[in-house]
Amino acid sequence: MSKGNINVSVENIFPLIKKFLYSDHEIFLRELISNATDATTKLKHLISIGEAKVELGDAKIEINIDKDAKTLTIKDQGLGMTAEEVEKYINQIAFSGAEEFLEKYKDDKNETGVIGHFGLGFYSAFMVADKVEIITKSFKGDKAAHWTCDGSPEYTLVEHDKEGRGTEIILHIAEDSTEFLEDGKISGLLTKYNRFNQVPIKFGTKEETLPLPEGAAEDVTPEKVTVDNIINNTNPAWTKKPADLEDEDYTNFYRELYPMQFEESLFHIHLNVDYPFNLTGILYFPKLSQNMDMQKDRIQLYQNQVFVTDNVEGIVPDFLQMLKGVIDSPDIPLNVSRSYLQADGAVKKISGYITKKVADKLSSLFKNNREDFEAKWNDIKVIIEYGMLSEEKFFDKAKKFALYPTVDDTYFTFDELLEKTKDAQTDKDGNHIVLYAANKDAQHGYIQDAKEKGYEILLLDSPIVSHLMQKLETSNDKVKFTRVDADHIDNLIKKDDTVISKLSDEEKETLKPMIEASVPKETYTVQLEAMDSNASPFLITVPEFMRRMKEMNATGGGMMGMGNLPEMYNLVVNTNHELVGEILNTKTEKKRNRLINQAFDLAKLSQNLLHGEELTNFIKRSYDLIK
Ligand code: ADP
Ligand code: MG
């Protein structure tokens, strides 16, 4: 028997370990299972290169709870350790590893949110146990070793008569951690961290009903057998070659990953690189819904099939965090803070790679099946538009496949749109005006007017599209986006043919104050225009610049303070309309005001601005007028 002191420089590391990241105590299980997995895969490797002359068998990891003894055991059939190796790996290396880890993170563990805590390793067992035993027998055949440590720097190491190869870690669960003796708790943790573990994990047994033999009579009771309860899938889809997978396999994996998600995904992207870093994974474009819970079913980060986190901030570019799926990389440094992670060269490359793969996939979907791509556009546009705004490299690729749907459900790329509209929609100053609507119903009248002129009207209704327009205008000189209700149609795209005004300048000067007297001037600016006599007499417009700045403010960005501007409108009065002539020539003030109010209300109505008392008055007045 040997006794000894673990080489301690921190007076007592165990209280420190116990305190470390209270909420993360549960990671001890992941650490010990990772060690058991390593021991098994290492042995497999040694066998494959002929260095270990043993049979692997169906090496699995077993987790056992003994409620009476208050122990939790993690048992593997991996390469095991000799007594010397226990001395070296557990007493020296693992210990100094844990010590170093704690030293490094004792100050910043709270504010930086260390992601994953790989590295604390074996000694994380002391977060939940007040005594830990290791019983291990090396594949090399020496006598088994039995190491015991009760949380003081003292340990004992003696021989043991364990027969089978491998390691058993016995945790004597501490009084304050008895939750880890509950089946439900352990099975929850196994599902969270290890459901795609590389080595099968057995947690208890389960009953399975055997299929009835062929031709069996109906009343035969099917036979039941007790089988190992294996909690993991050791070969998840992302570890396979894309060529070996069918669409259905991807759909099935989506369901496996998010059993509570009933919406199917739109398409997937299989990630697979081994240079200059290792990364595999599958990303899915989900169907985005209005009130989607962004915290649910997020992208999961794995390291060699062990779950690390579902917060991939810093690793996956922001705009792709709405995607679903898995990424797995041994190259992501997990023991560092997020700010450090963002600056890490390898991580930057990973983020760039993912962006590129997503862009390439979208581009090939667009090229190979445009119809299908158009059908999916509404579900994916927010992600793409967000990407175009936030990643210049993505913008350069996406501008070739980003779509701009019209109110008639035709989908143009930006280049196609410019080509299609350049003749009709270039104004006298050479500005190429792109017309759009945000709501087909609300802007119906304006859309009709624009259509009559033969213009194309886009339907742009995603929340950040105002920012995108701003960007497209900046990168395409002379291109201007204007919403159809920003002005009268003749003013939206000004051509040379000016319409002659029926009213003289004098008459206009009389008319303007008449109208101004009836409309609230804090909100409306009256503007007389000589327009087509068939166009509406009164028209309410929202200047493009103002509206867009307000919208951009609402979604973040735009010019400072513009969001607080009051609602401002233009009231465009068509001096060539018969009704306007009549207003001017009506002698009694009462009758004239009635005409002005009625026309003004109608204009408001077409912009959905007539509500409450104003609406009630309008209805009353309308009945009076027709009776
Ligand atoms: P790490 O896994 O990062 O090396 P750990 O503290 O988790 O650090 O483990 C330290 C060492 O102890 C391992 O590298 C390994 O050599 C040994 N070890 C731990 N658990 C086992 C096990 N189940 N079987 C064999 N060796 C083990
Ligand atoms: Mg380890």
From TrEMBL:
Record-linked PROSITE patterns:
HSP90
Would you indicate the residue range of the signal peptide?
none
Q: Key word Transport present in the record?
A: no
UniProt keyword list: ATP-binding, Chaperone, Nucleotide-binding
Q: Does the keyword Transmembrane apply?
A: no
Transmembrane stretches, by residue range? Answer: none
- Tell me which family the UniProt entry assigns to this protein: Belongs to the heat shock protein 90 family.
NCBIfam families per record: PRK05218.1
Name of the featured protein: Molecular chaperone HtpG
Say which species the protein is native to.
Asprobacillus argus
Q: Which gene encodes it?
A: htpG
